[in-house]
């Protein structure tokens, strides 16, 4: 997966900072930090006091998320983009489609990430 | 919630060319076509107006800065050439658009059955005073079919969302009827059981259930596969006049003259919550509580809000998880309401034949809710309860918690 095939209305800034999301089997996702902060959990992991080792590097390790949730992480990143793009605009918000076959596991991830 | 609903535009009927004392001027129904390209409104005096959506620029000030009801925002019946006026010959009570665009299988079917009137186009069904139902082609305004069978006012109509061109009608003759527009509008079933006027009908978006509600305070749920009664929902204290399913078919809301909207789980019949319509400024005595009779309730397209119209002259917006409305807008003599299918606008109709368009809350659904909606579009409550997931997740998925 190369991340961002579809963009939402050209809302990327020129000096974007990235974070790396590392799954339990070593797969890595590189996402713009602004969008990853959509997740309250990631935000806490990146800025909270010392419990999480990720505070220094811009990396977040998800030890609980197993590899079969990979495709759902992609959907998550798409959702982050969607949310950031439409939160601060006044245009009509299009529907964000969720494929039924990933919906249950995506829900678990969304619940964990509080988004 | 950021702000109260703002009035975007108001449309008034043009002066009728012949004032008929027997016809009335109420707007009993308003409807948007499922793809959002048309708006229909029974503007009284037997006329239905069909207007393309979005409305022409001149009727909506830029940037939604509408003030209430300035003369710039009105149209008196003249308008774009694409507007259609349908003269139904008698009072129009119910309106429903067919789903459009029709699925590819439907177009294939129409090609192989050229002798059937071509209803593989966008059609509007109109429910009339004497029990007839007229089916009109929207693009041309031509009358396609006349369905006879009901013995009294056809108060509400509903097409199956799947595009199969099955139409359900609800009537004061206490029956609902099922019509097949693929077969020249043949009546294929009569649903009996209600004891008083049937006020409304609604088909669940997954096409599995039909809800009907009547004067005897009960709400019936029917199977759309076998056309048999599944269950009766008891709880309202007066006539039940409006009903709507959530977009994922997981919730049913019903509105009554008893001032309440009840939210139900249609699969189990459980009452999930009641939304009480009490006065914003309580009267000095108790005599006015009854004037909060509900007229209409509808779900927003993403399934997180409800709009209600009541006799206490208020349009209310409710967020599902809260017990009190999040916003109010004053409207007199409201009778009906509906959301624009892509969100952002609510249309209301009144006793004097006017329609208004209001701003609706702009919603960015959480990913949790989007997943819930995707799952509940094909899972019943019982299937959810059987999933190997934590209890809290089941409660969320079945809308016991939000």
**Which protein chains make the most extensive interface, counting residues with beta carbons within 8 Å of the other chain's beta carbons?**
A-B, 23 and 24 residues
Q: Based on helices, strands and strand pairing, what is the structural class of chain A?
A: alpha+beta
Count of discrete domains of chain B: 1
Tally of domains of chain A: 1
CATH class of chain B: Mainly Beta
Strand content of chain B: 35-45%
Query: Major sheet of chain B: size, sense and barrel closure?
Result: 4 strands, antiparallel
SSE topology:
The complex is a heterodimer of chains A (115) and B (402).
Chain A: E1 18-23, E2 28-32, H1 33-36, H2 40-47, E3 59-62, H3 70-87, H4 100-113
Parallel strand pairs in A: 1-3
Antiparallel strand pairs in A: 1-2
Helix pairs in contact in A: 3-4
Chain B: E1 7-11, E2 30-32, E3 38-44, E4 47-52, E5 84-87, E6 92-97, H1 104-112, E7 123-128, E8 133-137, E9 143-147, E10 154-159, E11 166-171, E12 176-180, E13 186-191, E14 198-203, E15 209-214, E16 219-223, E17 229-233, E18 240-245, E19 252-256, E20 260-264, E21 271-276, E22 294-299, E23 305-310, E24 314-319, E25 327-330, E26 334-339, E27 345-350, E28 355-359, H2 367-376, H3 381-385, H4 391-397
Antiparallel strand pairs in B: 1-28, 2-3, 3-4, 4-5, 6-7, 7-8, 8-9, 10-11, 11-12, 12-13, 14-15, 15-16, 16-17, 18-19, 19-20, 20-21, 22-23, 23-24, 24-25, 26-27, 27-28
Write a structural description.
The complex is a heterodimer of chains A (115) and B (402). Chain A is of the alpha+beta class and 115 residues long. Chain A has one domain: 2-Layer Sandwich (Potassium Channel Kv1.1, Chain A). Chain A contains four helices and three strands. Chain A has helices at residues 33-36, 40-47, 70-87, 100-113, and strands spanning 18-23, 28-32, 59-62. Chain A has a three-stranded mixed sheet with strand order 2-1-3. In chain A, a hairpin with a 4-residue loop joins strand 1 (18-23) and strand 2 (28-32). Chain A is globular. In chain A, 30% of the residues are buried. Residues 1-14 of chain A have low confidence and may be disordered. With 402 residues, chain B is mainly beta. Chain B has one domain (7-57, 80-365): YVTN repeat-like/Quinoprotein amine dehydrogenase (Methylamine Dehydrogenase, Chain H). Chain B has helices at residues 104-112, 367-376, 381-385, 391-397; strands at 7-11, 30-32, 38-44, 47-52, 84-87, 92-97, 123-128, 133-137, 143-147, 154-159, 166-171, 176-180, 186-191, 198-203, 209-214, 219-223, 229-233, 240-245, 252-256, 260-264, 271-276, 294-299, 305-310, 314-319, 327-330, 334-339, 345-350, 355-359. Chain A binds chain B through residues 76, 79, 83, 86-87, 90, 92-93, 95-100, 103-104, 106-108, 110-111, 113, 115, and chain B through 302, 342-344, 362-368, 370-375, 377-378, 387, 389, 393, 396-397.
